Amino acid sequence: MPTSLSLDSLTVQEATRSSNTNPADLSQHVQEQCLHLASTMHKLLPRELRDMIYQYLYICDKPIPVGSHHFTTYKPTVLETSTPPALPQDASSQYATALISGLGPEAEAHDHSVDPPQDVILPGDHTLDPAYVGRQVAIEASQLYYSSNTFSVCTLENTLPEFLFTDIVSNFPKSPTHSQSIHAPLNITPFDLVHNLQIRVKYEHFDTYRTHYLWGHFTHEQDFLLQIYTNLSALTQRRNELSVPDSSAQLRPPPPALTIEFILMTAFYSLDWNPFPVTDTLRRLTNLFEALRTPLYTLRHDHAAEISVIHHDDGCFPFPMRLTNLFSMSREDWEYEKQALERAKMVYSPLQFLLAPAKDGDPELGFPCRKMDRLLKRRWACSPNLRSHPEWKVSKSAYWPRGRTSRQDRKEMRSSFSAEESE
Fold first, then answer.
1. For the chain, which ranges sit under pLDDT 50?
2. Are strands 150-154 and 64-66 parallel, antiparallel or unpaired?
3. Please, which residues have CB within 8 angstroms of residue 262's CB and are 6 or more apart in sequence?
4. Cα distance between residue 76 and residue 62, in whole Å
5. Which region ranges are annotated with the description Disordered (predicted)?
6. 401: preceding bond cis by omega (within 30 degrees)
């Protein structure tokens, strides 16, 4: 075991003596030495002992960051304003502590504003690269690495589907000196192995770039939330596809049951100096819940995932707020909702349930802000202050299960509102 851990330092010393410190020769020598050691291990040791080595080397006690912007505020490409300062990166800050992730100021250099972590193995690490350890060891090590660790992924761009559904060989750089067989697909995607995910729902830049989002047209907010929903839906769509029997498909085991922690990352104004009404903050948070709602219930009720939801806002709360109880709709109600949409030949979209800002009046899709309290009660079974009510359940109304679509007649909707208000 000590020999494998000191491999890098030993091979660098040997390569320095034998290659006159030429970078290309040094890299080639290190690669050859790593490959030789890994091949020898695979040849001489039984699988049980190899697994013990993999467990020691590859299992981390903290979430492994994947993709972009874990500790910085995302800058949408549509915006030309200067990049805002990064979120606090001091390991002792409330931000770092409250996430309960232990990641600290660490991330991949090309994706983040800080250095990569030194105490976790990232998916692109050379100790998982078949060019350094051979295809057989790479496959065995990767199977344990992805099935045993927790991975932290942000809902930005296509980070989540790219991580889960892409062959892991794409994580490694290709070299002209490598044979084509070295980086042929390993037929391993993280989706088939990962058990534990931390999904960071990035919402901070909505407030950071308030000129575009808060003071712009409602469509900016709609597009923003639709991107979050689409990113999360990729996970549920792939699982739905695999749950349908296909005689022509190669027999494969079902994907593992998931444990997912959703962390809602916001940067709302504190109540002391919020230039916007508190009602609008609640409206936007309710809309954010809607972007999560269908993917979350699909994972929980259709695929037996264990779900938790945490809201983190370093400027508003000293500690993270647990919101899992707001997503407590029963399996029976979830099945009713799906069947109702199917009978109506409707395809769900979060746009049908979003609350428009007060300044926008009645939207074409969704509901006006003045209907927020009723929507929270009927669709979320919670009070206006986002507290779940033990005696309430979701109830059939204009807000559940169908929502408001552009095809619905305005007169019908007004009648629905009037009937509800008379109750």
1. 1-7, 9, 12, 15, 19, 80-114, 247-249, 407-410, 413-414, 417, 421-423
2. parallel
3. 199, 201, 292, 296, 307, 308, 309, 310
4. 29
5. 1-26, 401-423
6. yes
Angle between helices 23-44 and 47-58 (to 10 degrees): 140
Number of alpha carbons in the 13 Å side-chain half-sphere of residue 317: 16
Number of helical (H) and strand (E) elements in the chain, helices listed first: 15, 6
Length of the chain: 423
CA distance 405 to 347: 10
Q: Taking the CB of residue 2, how many other CB atoms lie within 10 A of it?
A: 6
Q: What is the CA radius of gyration of the chain?
A: 25
Nearest to 172 by CA among 61, 282, 3, 34: 34
State the Cα–Cα distance between residues 353 and 207, nearest whole angstrom: 21
User: At 416, is the secondary structure helix, strand, or coil?
Assistant: helix
* CB-based contact 392:326 (threshold 8 Å): no
To which residue do tokens 């995932």 refer?
305
Q: At what angle do helices 278-297 and 218-242 cross, to 10 degrees?
A: 20
